[in-house]
Write a structure and sequence with these properties.
This protein is mainly beta. The protein has one domain: Neuraminidase, CATH 2.120.10. It is 0% helix and 52% strand. It has a four-stranded antiparallel sheet, with no helix packed on it. A four-stranded antiparallel sheet has the order 7-8-9-10, with no helix packed on it. Strands 11-12-13-14 form a four-stranded antiparallel sheet, with no helix packed on it. A hairpin with a 4-residue loop joins β20 and β21. The protein is globular and about 45 Å long. The termini are far apart. Keywords: Repeat. One of its GO terms (molecular function) is zinc ion binding. InterPro entries: 6-blade_b-propeller_TolB-like, NHL_repeat, TRIM-NHL_E3_ligases. It holds the Pfam family NHL. This is SMP-30/Gluconolactonase/LRE-like region domain-containing protein.
Length: 233
């Protein structure tokens, strides 16, 4: 039996980040679609569709971002353990098809997805995928303990020595934040995968840090899983 999960939309107005009393949150709505262990969320380039990595159902679910109503889904007949999705400037979808050890690539025609290729070299158990403005595709291999950069289908760079790396996000200077989960640290990487900065130990005290987002001003927000905390840096 599938576990039923919902996606919640919250609207927040922040006057300061210093005190919880200054945060106003309004409940907007919840999805009713049957999801099983949903992970990453990504808006389509035109903002009309919300793509959800539905891990337990081995698919990507597409919802209306305003109402959270179900629109479509794809991949259940060939994906396994779907964890992440990102889009190229041409609208192509790149999906972290984790248990199949690949990034599955789709041409998108509205909400219709056509599988057109894959990236597999040097990666196992990909948990994160990032399409960079430089045209490269960056993949975090949680089982291969590395990050691999692809361009035109070929490997152009690799960073090894990681432990179960997860989420990848772009910062305003076009560098890349990586959650190196098993090493309890956040790494700032250059587009050539050189380590520019490491956040670990005090005052961060990460423990299994996995997911993140980067605000327009460069503020880093991370989900520190085993500490059961959200941290703002």
């Amino acid at each position: 039996m599938l576990r039923k999960f919902v996606l919640l939309y919250l609207a927040g107005a922040f006057s300061t980040f210093s005190f919880a009393a200054d945060v106003e949150i309004q409940f907007v709505g919840a999805s009713t679609t049957e999801l099983d262990n949903p992970h990453d969320l990504k808006l389509s380039l035109d903002g009309r569709h919300l793509f959800v990595s539905d891990v337990g159902n081995d698919q990507v679910v597409i919802l209306n971002p305003d109402t959270l109503e179900f629109i479509s889904a794809f991949g259940s007949d060939h994906q396994s353990g779907t964890h992440d999705v990102d889009f190229g400037p041409d609208g192509r979808a790149y999906v972290a098809d984790t248990h199949n050890n690949r990034i599955a690539i789709y041409d998108m025609n509205g909400t219709n997805a056509e599988f057109i290729g894959q990236l597999t070299e040097r990666i196992r158990g990909p948990e994160g995928v990032l399409v960079h403005p430089n045209g490269a595709i960056y993949v975090a291999g949680a089982w291969s303990n590395n990050v691999v950069a692809f361009k035109n289908g070929n490997v152009i760079a690799e960073l090894s020595g990681l432990r179960a790396p997860h989420d990848l996000e772009l910062n305003p200077s076009s560098d890349i934040w990586l959650a190196d989960s098993g090493n309890d640290r956040m790494l700032l990487l250059s587009p050539t995968l050189e380590i520019k900065r490491e956040l670990s130990g005090p005052p961060y005290h990460f423990n299994g840090v996995r997911y993140q987002d980067v605000l327009q001003d460069g503020t880093l927000i991370v989900a520190d899983k085993n500490n059961h905390q959200i941290k703002m840096i």
